[in-house]
Amino acid sequence: MARPKRQDARREALLQAAGVAIQRRGLHATRVRDIADQAGVAAGTVTYYFRDLDELFRLVFAQAVDRFCTQREREAAAHEDPRDQLAAVLRHGLPTGPDDQLCCLLYEFSPHARHRDSDAQLRRELYERQLHLYRDVLTRGHASGRFDLRRPAEEIAANLVALEDAYGYHVIARTFMPRQQAEEHLFGYAALATADPSLAPENHYGPG
Amino acid sequence: MARPKRQDARREALLQAAGVAIQRRGLHATRVRDIADQAGVAAGTVTYYFRDLDELFRLVFAQAVDRFCTQREREAAAHEDPRDQLAAVLRHGLPTGPDDQLCCLLYEFSPHARHRDSDAQLRRELYERQLHLYRDVLTRGHASGRFDLRRPAEEIAANLVALEDAYGYHVIARTFMPRQQAEEHLFGYAALATADPSLAPENHYGPG
Amino acid sequence: MARPKRQDARREALLQAAGVAIQRRGLHATRVRDIADQAGVAAGTVTYYFRDLDELFRLVFAQAVDRFCTQREREAAAHEDPRDQLAAVLRHGLPTGPDDQLCCLLYEFSPHARHRDSDAQLRRELYERQLHLYRDVLTRGHASGRFDLRRPAEEIAANLVALEDAYGYHVIARTFMPRQQAEEHLFGYAALATADPSLAPENHYGPG
Amino acid sequence: MARPKRQDARREALLQAAGVAIQRRGLHATRVRDIADQAGVAAGTVTYYFRDLDELFRLVFAQAVDRFCTQREREAAAHEDPRDQLAAVLRHGLPTGPDDQLCCLLYEFSPHARHRDSDAQLRRELYERQLHLYRDVLTRGHASGRFDLRRPAEEIAANLVALEDAYGYHVIARTFMPRQQAEEHLFGYAALATADPSLAPENHYGPG
DNA sequence: AATGAATGAGATTTCATTCAT
DNA sequence: CATGAATGAAATCTCATTCAT
Fold first, then answer.
1. What is the CATH architecture assignment of B61-197?
2. CATH domain C1-51 topology
3. Which of A132, B49, B99, C180 has its Cα between 20 and 30 A from that of C194?
4. What is the rounded distance in angstroms from the CA atom of residue B194 to the CA atom of residue B196?
5. What's this model's pTM, rounded to 2 decimal places?
6. pLDDT tens, position by position, D153-178
7. CA angle B190, B193, B198 (to 5 degrees)
8. Which chains contact D through at least 3 pairs of Cβ atoms less than 8 Å apart?
9. Nearest residue (CA) to C1' of F2
């Protein structure tokens, strides 16, 4: 163990504090000072542990990505029935509300992915792990006869991730869509694509 | 006319220059200097016209939102057949590629909407105008018998906007999804939701 | 004239101020703040003109080298008789006293020449221009029959420069040798090497 | 013995390490960290032993001065014949080359002698011990009839020290004079001043 | 005795903004 | 109207030093 436990704990605490600071102020407005205040240490301590602020941010992002994906993968694994799996994954993909820390973090980093390679890679990892999750559930559901996929599994998975991303943003951004409604829309698409009416009540719809 | 024309022209040019600068460097990294350089004027000139930099950014965002929505509304109006309308709107909602200036701008401002009221309002306007566009097309298509909506028009419209947003980001962010594929996914959903197979070839899909 | 006169004047003033500050505090202890104070401007102004402090220091050194050499070359040119020339050059090569600004500057930069290439080049230029000055005077004095060189002109010139350098340091460093004595030693060597007793009284010397 | 031996040994090691660090990076750029790294200890250990960094530097200088002078005095004492003594002292006064650690150290401290009293005193001690060395050799050589001093012993001694100082710098500073040439110039002067042609071949010299 | 985590003073650097021209 | 020299507030970064272990 090259680095003593105490130092690791402090690093962890700083990353945690940085996460909170970013969620509160926005990534672009978070200063060393904010992180230090949040962690209850001196500003110098932050630069002592992270010579480079960008590196710290990258780690915060990496951790958020991993935590988010792991969480969902675990959630999926907790169910046997593909339909239950799908429902669980759908529900846990959306932020709980405007204060969902993990999700807020992920959105803060999005525009950076256009400008920084390391962020682009992480963003891609986030995307592919989510895609993989959905594709697996759909494929297994189809194989077991539970789902009758009306479009390619790949497309449905991609669409579910996309809807999740977009609605997630709506839930988080103030003045937008409530989580409940976002969830209904997601399940609406899932029902349509898997031809499983138990995911959403099917009717014949007129205008509006 | 309180403000002479020449001054207005200069303001317009600065907004234009700011847009380019933001697209290139990212919103958070754009300095007065960058805008001035891009516009070919002195730094002092920028603050001379825009005492408040935040105001300038807000205007850039507002203009981008309006330009984007107007463009699409015009596009929709250019067609008679609801299906052509829908196809046209879908196609023009996605960025042409990673260099689509207008779309890049819109994404740069997204995380700010969580932190600044004026941005939140603009973001909401952007959302609602797009939503309205789709809902209209769908409703009229349904009324004319062209579409057989399998879910509420409101939901389908919201899902189309959401898919567009998410895929738009993928097209723009480097290392992500090519526009072509994003478009196919979008049409796939549209075909499913409107029960109009002409939008995408319908088959029975197995795993993968 | 790409750069307006006023800006050039300010740059010149800052270089001048930097010279004073360096002489007072020593090169290694001179901060941006000291230069700004000396010039009567804000600290930001110094970095506005000289983004890189090292660059400023290099210019100060370069200017000092050039000024010092030009001064001496002009002095030499003011005389006809080689002996008068030699005497003039010798006298102007030594600092007037511990406050001789130009000389203090040159000594401050000496140790840096071991560590920075640009300083090494300037130091070398300083050396070669002085060497050339002496060699010329000696050669012409010999040719005219005024001097009877007892050692190669090259060696005598090098030795005169070396003595000058070392004694110059003594004159400048506190608690060292008075200028008067340093001058006598220099002339003593010159008399010996040129066999011109008029440069220093020649006797037969016993111990002490 | 108030201070135990082990502690003394550690102090000694740190001074040694500091010397190396200063030679490598230059006095003004040497940080506590560099010394600690060089000595293979923690940074805290350096300040534990030397509460005051300036004090440490002073001791490094003092030690260098003493070591340099003692070395030369021992060298002089190793010979009987005044001419051999003079030759030995001359040879050992010049740095062996650009990496001569002791000499580099002495030069690093030179400009500080203008700004710090303690350094000025050490520099003066260095000067006077060298001066004394030469004066003794010259006086005894003259008394024994070996030398026929053509200038006062005091002046010759001072000039030899001065030449040594200046040429020493040239040898050390990159891009300057090779040691061999410096030595020839020094012997040239010694031969002239002591009228001892065995120190350097005497001829009649024309221009160049 | 020795460490090295943590600090905070002090320096530089960046940059929006002011203002005389 | 437009400039750009000059500013100074605000941020980061460096590093000697402290102190609990």
1. Orthogonal Bundle (1.10)
2. Arc Repressor Mutant, subunit A (1.10.10)
3. C180
4. 5
5. 0.88
6. 999 999 999 999 999 999 998 767 89
7. 55
8. C
9. B45
